[in-house]
């Protein structure tokens, strides 16, 4: 459905509320980080890349051994590096992520006004966005640059409906710089435009998404990865081998059905027949998420479904617009029920209650961690747990000992260990960390241990320059 290109200007109250919600989201993600619940993947990873860019150093991750652009082709991360030149702090990432999510409501308002919805329903559309469970959960789940692209995606939908092709193409090109996976959304736009028989628009989106995929897989990734192509493809779809029957048996049918239900739950009640074209935009992304080997692609906890939340809300706007045209505007009672249902879905599927339990599990370790980090030399090569890596990631060398880690410590280049075998963290194991600490003791490293189980060990050369004081 096409609306007038002369959309109502978003009111000042919307900007203020978006800012306040953004600040609230930032405070939640900053609190989670302070409570030692953030991880090497992905906050530590992106923090290190941004810091390296700000220092003029090659942006090569010591955790993954890959260039910034070889991860997801996210060239917008260089903007993060520019911000780090002002003040090197991962709070830039957390704050910008929270504000991008909250301010997506502004182009959502523009889309609702463009569809000629009355002001009360424009506010309802914004509320539906803010109450999307995946929005809150993505804000908490470390940092991912594609989150920056959500207001761009919503504005691109507005530009298409306003028949502004150059702005639309510019926004789509911008979108590709946040993450390679967003080319699936652009491929979905091509499908939507083909459905609407807008062949030039469809062709443009097809060429753009296909061309970007070829450029990344045939040139950029092989160039930066010594000839290797996209590693995510093998990780996601390596299980889809064998006969068609074997492939079908390997799929998570129950999980997929539950995932589709959860996607539709918050605002699917407002979808109508004219919502179908915009829902087609999500088709490629939904298919990829359903086929992925990892179940994390089929939850509302991670960021993988975030573009689908934008699409779901815009589909609801189209459904509301259809009702308005047919003289079936939502009454106050029905608006209250829709908003109430969205609140119930948010309470059931968002994770604010993690702050009352799971996120407090390491609170008792906080003081020990602060003291230990103060003793870590700034130029040291640190091997730590996954949840301490983002506390120390503004350096050239930082990693966490994975379960597969078996290199002799004496032969490695690491000069500092900061481990806690009793709380090994994600991707590691107690046995791996205990063996590393035992090697450090045998090799004459200077070590200090705290009552929480946290232990800091410095290699002999590092300890001579920065001796630990066991006071």
Fold and architecture overview:
Strand 4 (446-449) and strand 5 form a beta hairpin. Helix 7 packs antiparallel against helix 18 (306-325), helix 10 packs parallel to helix 12 (199-224) and helix 11 (183-195) packs antiparallel against helix 12. The chain has helices at 12-34, 40-54, 68-72, 77-86, 91-103, 105-114, 119-130, 133-140, 150-161, 165-176, 183-195, 199-224, 231-237, 244-250, 253-264, 276-279, 283-291, 306-325, 332-349, 366-374, 430-442, 460-465; strands at 382-384, 398-399, 416-419, 446-449, 455-458. It folds into two domains: 12-356, no CATH class; 365-465, no CATH class. Strands 2-1-3-5-4 form a five-stranded mixed β-sheet. It has 471 residues and is mostly helical. The chain is built from 22 helices and five strands. It starts with 11 loop residues before the first helix and ends in a 6-residue tail after the last helix.
Task: Give the H and E element order.
Answer: HHHHHHHHHHHHHHHHHHHHEEEHEEH
Work out the radius of gyration.
24 Å
- Regions with pLDDT < 50 over 5+ consecutive residues? 1-7
Structural class: mainly alpha
Number of E-state strands: 5
Shape: globular
Count of helices? 22
Q: What can be said about the biggest beta sheet?
A: 5 strands, mixed
As for the number of domains, it is 2
Mean of all residue-level pLDDT scores: 91
